[in-house]
Amino acid sequence: MSPFPETVRPGASVQEAAARMRAFDVGFLPVVSGEEAVGVVTDRDLVTRVVGCGLDGRRTTVADVMTTNVICCEATASIDTVARTMAVLQVRRVLVVGPGRRFLGVIGLADLARAGHETLAALILGFTSRVLPSIPPVLPGL
Amino acid sequence: MKRKIEDVMTRIVEVVTPDMSVRDVATRMKDRNIGSYPVCDGGSLIGMVTDRDLALRVLAEGRDPDSTPVEAVMSTNVSSCTPEDRLDDVLALMGGRQLRRIPVVGTDGRVVGLVTLGKIAETDCEASGEVLRDVVRSAGDDAQVDDA
User: How much is the pTM?
Assistant: First the structure.
Protein backbone atom coordinates (compact mmCIF):
# COMPACT_ATOMS: atom_id res chain seq x y z
CA MET A 1 0.00 0.00 0.00
CA SER A 2 0.97 3.65 -0.20
CA PRO A 3 1.25 4.91 3.38
CA PHE A 4 0.68 8.59 4.17
CA PRO A 5 -0.79 9.58 0.78
CA GLU A 6 -2.08 13.09 0.30
CA THR A 7 -5.60 13.61 1.66
CA VAL A 8 -8.18 16.38 1.74
CA ARG A 9 -10.62 17.58 4.42
CA PRO A 10 -14.37 17.33 3.77
CA GLY A 11 -14.78 21.07 4.36
CA ALA A 12 -12.20 22.04 1.73
CA SER A 13 -13.47 23.71 -1.44
CA VAL A 14 -13.51 21.80 -4.71
CA GLN A 15 -11.04 24.33 -6.06
CA GLU A 16 -8.67 23.54 -3.19
CA ALA A 17 -9.03 19.80 -3.80
CA ALA A 18 -8.25 20.26 -7.49
CA ALA A 19 -5.24 22.41 -6.61
CA ARG A 20 -3.94 19.65 -4.30
CA MET A 21 -4.38 17.08 -7.08
CA ARG A 22 -2.32 19.28 -9.35
CA ALA A 23 0.34 20.07 -6.75
CA PHE A 24 0.87 16.41 -5.84
CA ASP A 25 0.25 14.99 -9.31
CA VAL A 26 -2.54 12.65 -8.23
CA GLY A 27 -6.07 12.09 -9.51
CA PHE A 28 -7.52 10.73 -6.32
CA LEU A 29 -7.70 11.97 -2.74
CA PRO A 30 -9.00 10.16 0.34
CA VAL A 31 -11.27 12.47 2.34
CA VAL A 32 -10.25 12.37 6.00
CA SER A 33 -12.03 14.02 8.90
CA GLY A 34 -9.82 13.99 11.98
CA GLU A 35 -8.35 10.51 11.55
CA GLU A 36 -11.43 8.89 10.06
CA ALA A 37 -11.74 8.05 6.35
CA VAL A 38 -15.13 9.49 5.36
CA GLY A 39 -14.96 9.45 1.56
CA VAL A 40 -12.92 9.58 -1.62
CA VAL A 41 -12.87 12.02 -4.51
CA THR A 42 -11.31 11.81 -7.98
CA ASP A 43 -10.47 14.46 -10.54
CA ARG A 44 -13.30 13.10 -12.65
CA ASP A 45 -15.76 13.42 -9.74
CA LEU A 46 -14.87 17.10 -9.42
CA VAL A 47 -15.40 17.75 -13.12
CA THR A 48 -18.62 15.77 -13.64
CA ARG A 49 -20.28 16.56 -10.30
CA VAL A 50 -19.33 20.24 -10.14
CA VAL A 51 -18.58 21.71 -13.57
CA GLY A 52 -20.90 19.24 -15.32
CA CYS A 53 -23.75 20.07 -12.93
CA GLY A 54 -23.56 23.84 -13.24
CA LEU A 55 -21.94 24.33 -9.82
CA ASP A 56 -19.15 26.71 -8.79
CA GLY A 57 -15.94 25.00 -7.64
CA ARG A 58 -15.11 27.88 -5.31
CA ARG A 59 -18.38 27.58 -3.39
CA THR A 60 -18.82 23.80 -3.43
CA THR A 61 -17.14 21.69 -0.76
CA VAL A 62 -15.53 18.30 -1.09
CA ALA A 63 -18.20 16.88 1.24
CA ASP A 64 -20.88 17.96 -1.28
CA VAL A 65 -19.47 15.82 -4.09
CA MET A 66 -17.34 13.05 -2.54
CA THR A 67 -18.16 9.37 -2.77
CA THR A 68 -19.11 8.17 0.71
CA ASN A 69 -19.60 4.49 -0.13
CA VAL A 70 -15.91 3.77 0.40
CA ILE A 71 -14.34 0.36 -0.08
CA CYS A 72 -11.89 -0.38 2.73
CA CYS A 73 -9.67 -3.22 3.90
CA GLU A 74 -7.54 -3.95 6.95
CA ALA A 75 -3.77 -3.66 6.75
CA THR A 76 -3.47 -7.43 7.22
CA ALA A 77 -5.63 -8.26 4.15
CA SER A 78 -3.92 -10.48 1.57
CA ILE A 79 -3.21 -9.27 -1.97
CA ASP A 80 -5.57 -11.99 -3.19
CA THR A 81 -8.42 -10.58 -1.11
CA VAL A 82 -7.76 -7.02 -2.23
CA ALA A 83 -7.47 -8.05 -5.90
CA ARG A 84 -10.76 -9.96 -5.78
CA THR A 85 -12.41 -7.04 -4.02
CA MET A 86 -11.26 -4.69 -6.78
CA ALA A 87 -12.43 -7.03 -9.53
CA VAL A 88 -15.84 -7.79 -8.01
CA LEU A 89 -16.67 -4.30 -6.78
CA GLN A 90 -15.25 -2.60 -9.89
CA VAL A 91 -12.86 -0.32 -8.05
CA ARG A 92 -9.20 0.37 -8.72
CA ARG A 93 -8.27 1.56 -5.25
CA VAL A 94 -9.07 0.38 -1.75
CA LEU A 95 -8.54 2.41 1.42
CA VAL A 96 -6.55 0.71 4.17
CA VAL A 97 -8.06 1.45 7.58
CA GLY A 98 -7.73 0.51 11.23
CA PRO A 99 -10.45 0.27 13.91
CA GLY A 100 -13.07 3.02 13.63
CA ARG A 101 -12.12 3.53 9.99
CA ARG A 102 -8.89 5.23 11.06
CA PHE A 103 -7.16 6.11 7.83
CA LEU A 104 -3.85 4.31 7.25
CA GLY A 105 -3.21 4.37 3.50
CA VAL A 106 -4.36 3.37 0.03
CA ILE A 107 -3.71 0.32 -2.13
CA GLY A 108 -4.28 0.77 -5.85
CA LEU A 109 -3.57 -0.98 -9.13
CA ALA A 110 -0.24 0.86 -9.33
CA ASP A 111 0.80 -0.64 -5.99
CA LEU A 112 -0.01 -4.14 -7.27
CA ALA A 113 1.92 -3.46 -10.50
CA ARG A 114 4.87 -2.06 -8.58
CA ALA A 115 4.95 -5.09 -6.27
CA GLY A 116 5.43 -7.44 -9.23
CA HIS A 117 1.76 -8.25 -9.82
CA GLU A 118 1.49 -6.29 -13.07
CA THR A 119 -0.44 -9.00 -14.93
CA LEU A 120 -2.90 -9.21 -12.08
CA ALA A 121 -3.21 -5.41 -12.07
CA ALA A 122 -3.94 -5.40 -15.81
CA LEU A 123 -6.48 -8.19 -15.37
CA ILE A 124 -8.31 -6.08 -12.81
CA LEU A 125 -8.00 -3.05 -15.08
CA GLY A 126 -9.71 -5.09 -17.81
CA PHE A 127 -12.47 -6.16 -15.45
CA THR A 128 -13.05 -2.67 -14.10
CA SER A 129 -13.14 -1.27 -17.64
CA ARG A 130 -16.08 -3.47 -18.51
CA VAL A 131 -19.62 -2.53 -17.73
CA LEU A 132 -20.61 -5.83 -16.18
CA PRO A 133 -18.63 -7.32 -13.32
CA SER A 134 -17.44 -10.90 -13.46
CA ILE A 135 -15.24 -12.95 -11.18
CA PRO A 136 -12.12 -14.60 -12.60
CA PRO A 137 -11.88 -18.30 -11.65
CA VAL A 138 -8.12 -18.10 -11.16
CA LEU A 139 -6.02 -14.99 -10.65
CA PRO A 140 -2.60 -15.12 -12.33
CA GLY A 141 0.60 -13.94 -10.68
CA LEU A 142 -0.20 -15.10 -7.15
CA MET B 1 -1.50 -13.43 -35.71
CA LYS B 2 -0.46 -9.86 -35.05
CA ARG B 3 -3.38 -7.76 -33.98
CA LYS B 4 -3.99 -4.34 -35.43
CA ILE B 5 -5.37 -1.22 -33.85
CA GLU B 6 -8.68 -1.59 -35.69
CA ASP B 7 -9.24 -4.82 -33.74
CA VAL B 8 -9.04 -3.16 -30.34
CA MET B 9 -10.04 0.46 -30.85
CA THR B 10 -13.20 2.07 -29.60
CA ARG B 11 -14.95 3.59 -32.57
CA ILE B 12 -15.64 7.22 -31.86
CA VAL B 13 -18.67 8.95 -33.20
CA GLU B 14 -18.22 12.08 -31.18
CA VAL B 15 -15.58 14.80 -30.97
CA VAL B 16 -15.70 18.33 -29.57
CA THR B 17 -14.85 21.62 -31.26
CA PRO B 18 -12.23 24.06 -29.89
CA ASP B 19 -14.78 26.82 -29.26
CA MET B 20 -17.02 24.73 -26.99
CA SER B 21 -17.10 25.92 -23.37
CA VAL B 22 -15.52 23.86 -20.63
CA ARG B 23 -18.96 23.72 -18.98
CA ASP B 24 -20.54 22.11 -22.04
CA VAL B 25 -17.74 19.56 -22.41
CA ALA B 26 -17.86 18.64 -18.70
CA THR B 27 -21.63 18.16 -18.95
CA ARG B 28 -21.17 15.91 -21.95
CA MET B 29 -18.44 13.90 -20.16
CA LYS B 30 -20.91 13.33 -17.32
CA ASP B 31 -23.97 12.52 -19.48
CA ARG B 32 -22.16 10.06 -21.75
CA ASN B 33 -19.74 8.66 -19.19
CA ILE B 34 -16.69 9.62 -21.27
CA GLY B 35 -13.31 10.69 -19.89
CA SER B 36 -11.64 12.24 -22.91
CA TYR B 37 -12.56 13.79 -26.24
CA PRO B 38 -10.53 14.50 -29.35
CA VAL B 39 -10.74 18.20 -30.23
CA CYS B 40 -11.26 18.70 -33.95
CA ASP B 41 -11.26 21.87 -36.02
CA GLY B 42 -12.83 21.45 -39.44
CA GLY B 43 -12.52 17.69 -39.11
CA SER B 44 -8.82 17.53 -38.31
CA LEU B 45 -7.39 16.63 -34.92
CA ILE B 46 -5.85 19.59 -33.06
CA GLY B 47 -5.83 18.31 -29.47
CA MET B 48 -7.26 16.13 -26.73
CA VAL B 49 -9.15 17.16 -23.63
CA THR B 50 -9.61 14.91 -20.59
CA ASP B 51 -11.62 15.20 -17.39
CA ARG B 52 -8.28 15.59 -15.62
CA ASP B 53 -7.32 18.55 -17.85
CA LEU B 54 -10.52 20.28 -16.77
CA ALA B 55 -9.88 19.57 -13.07
CA LEU B 56 -6.29 20.82 -13.12
CA ARG B 57 -6.48 23.66 -15.61
CA VAL B 58 -9.94 25.06 -14.84
CA LEU B 59 -11.09 24.07 -11.33
CA ALA B 60 -7.67 24.26 -9.67
CA GLU B 61 -7.08 27.72 -11.13
CA GLY B 62 -10.55 29.04 -10.38
CA ARG B 63 -11.26 29.83 -14.05
CA ASP B 64 -14.81 30.36 -15.26
CA PRO B 65 -15.99 27.20 -17.06
CA ASP B 66 -18.69 29.10 -18.92
CA SER B 67 -16.33 31.58 -20.57
CA THR B 68 -13.28 29.31 -21.00
CA PRO B 69 -13.15 27.54 -24.38
CA VAL B 70 -11.81 24.01 -24.62
CA GLU B 71 -8.90 25.12 -26.80
CA ALA B 72 -7.51 27.13 -23.87
CA VAL B 73 -7.07 24.03 -21.73
CA MET B 74 -6.71 21.10 -24.16
CA SER B 75 -3.47 19.20 -24.66
CA THR B 76 -1.88 19.85 -28.04
CA ASN B 77 0.96 17.95 -29.73
CA VAL B 78 -1.05 14.76 -29.45
CA SER B 79 0.35 11.35 -30.39
CA SER B 80 -1.95 9.46 -32.77
CA CYS B 81 -1.99 6.17 -34.64
CA THR B 82 -3.84 4.65 -37.61
CA PRO B 83 -6.25 1.68 -37.77
CA GLU B 84 -3.58 -0.31 -39.67
CA ASP B 85 -0.86 0.18 -37.03
CA ARG B 86 0.21 -2.92 -35.13
CA LEU B 87 -1.01 -3.18 -31.57
CA ASP B 88 2.50 -4.07 -30.36
CA ASP B 89 3.92 -0.83 -31.77
CA VAL B 90 1.21 1.30 -30.18
CA LEU B 91 1.64 -0.48 -26.84
CA ALA B 92 5.35 0.37 -27.01
CA LEU B 93 4.41 4.00 -27.68
CA MET B 94 2.05 3.99 -24.68
CA GLY B 95 4.74 2.53 -22.41
CA GLY B 96 7.44 4.88 -23.65
CA ARG B 97 5.44 8.06 -23.31
CA GLN B 98 3.20 7.02 -20.40
CA LEU B 99 0.04 7.39 -22.45
CA ARG B 100 -3.18 5.54 -21.71
CA ARG B 101 -5.36 6.84 -24.53
CA ILE B 102 -4.33 7.47 -28.13
CA PRO B 103 -6.64 8.77 -30.88
CA VAL B 104 -6.86 6.77 -34.11
CA VAL B 105 -6.77 8.83 -37.30
CA GLY B 106 -7.87 7.62 -40.74
CA THR B 107 -6.17 8.32 -44.08
CA ASP B 108 -8.30 11.43 -44.61
CA GLY B 109 -7.05 12.92 -41.32
CA ARG B 110 -10.32 12.40 -39.49
CA VAL B 111 -10.54 10.79 -36.08
CA VAL B 112 -12.06 7.32 -36.41
CA GLY B 113 -11.48 5.88 -32.95
CA LEU B 114 -9.61 5.78 -29.68
CA VAL B 115 -7.25 3.19 -28.23
CA THR B 116 -7.23 2.89 -24.44
CA LEU B 117 -5.10 0.76 -22.19
CA GLY B 118 -8.23 -0.28 -20.28
CA LYS B 119 -9.85 -1.59 -23.45
CA ILE B 120 -6.73 -3.53 -24.46
CA ALA B 121 -6.53 -5.01 -20.95
CA GLU B 122 -9.99 -6.54 -21.43
CA THR B 123 -8.54 -9.01 -23.91
CA ASP B 124 -4.78 -8.96 -23.38
CA CYS B 125 -3.66 -8.52 -19.79
CA GLU B 126 -0.13 -9.81 -20.49
CA ALA B 127 0.68 -7.05 -22.95
CA SER B 128 -1.09 -4.30 -21.06
CA GLY B 129 0.51 -5.51 -17.83
CA GLU B 130 3.93 -4.80 -19.30
CA VAL B 131 2.82 -1.31 -20.28
CA LEU B 132 1.40 -0.76 -16.79
CA ARG B 133 4.74 -1.77 -15.31
CA ASP B 134 6.57 0.66 -17.62
CA VAL B 135 4.21 3.47 -16.71
CA VAL B 136 4.64 2.78 -13.02
CA ARG B 137 8.42 2.54 -13.28
CA SER B 138 8.90 5.76 -15.18
CA ALA B 139 6.06 7.87 -13.85
CA GLY B 140 5.45 6.44 -10.40
CA ASP B 141 2.07 8.10 -10.31
CA ASP B 142 -0.78 6.07 -8.88
CA ALA B 143 -3.45 8.23 -10.43
CA GLN B 144 -2.16 7.84 -13.96
CA VAL B 145 -2.28 4.07 -13.78
CA ASP B 146 -5.34 3.60 -11.63
CA ASP B 147 -7.38 5.76 -13.97
CA ALA B 148 -6.22 4.01 -17.15
Answer: 0.79
Q: Please name each of the domains of chain B with its CATH number.
A: 5-146 (3.10.580.10)
**CA separation for the pair A28, A43 (Å, rounded):** 6
CB-based contact, A71 to chain B, within 8 Å: no
CATH superfamily of A2-129: CBS-domain (3.10.580.10)
Q: Which of B31, B59, B129 sits opposite A14 (nearest CB)?
A: B59
Query: Across the interface, do A47 and B59 touch by the CB < 8 Å criterion?
Result: yes
Provide the ipTM. 0.79
- CA distances, A99 to each of A10, A67, A102, A120 (Å): 20, 21, 6, 29
According to DSSP, the residues that pair with A3 across neighbouring strands are A105
CA distance A127 to A89: 10
| Nearest of A141, A57, A6 to residue B65 by alpha carbon | A57
- What one-character DSSP code corresponds to residue B57? I
Contacting B residues, span 21-40, partner chain A, CB-CB under 8 Å = 22-23, 26-31, 35
B106 touches A at CB < 8 Å: no
In Å, how far is A6's CA from the nearest CA of chain B?
12
Question: What pLDDT digit, counting tens, does each position of B67-119 carry?
Answer: 999 999 999 989 999 999 999 999 988 888 878 889 999 988 889 999 988 77
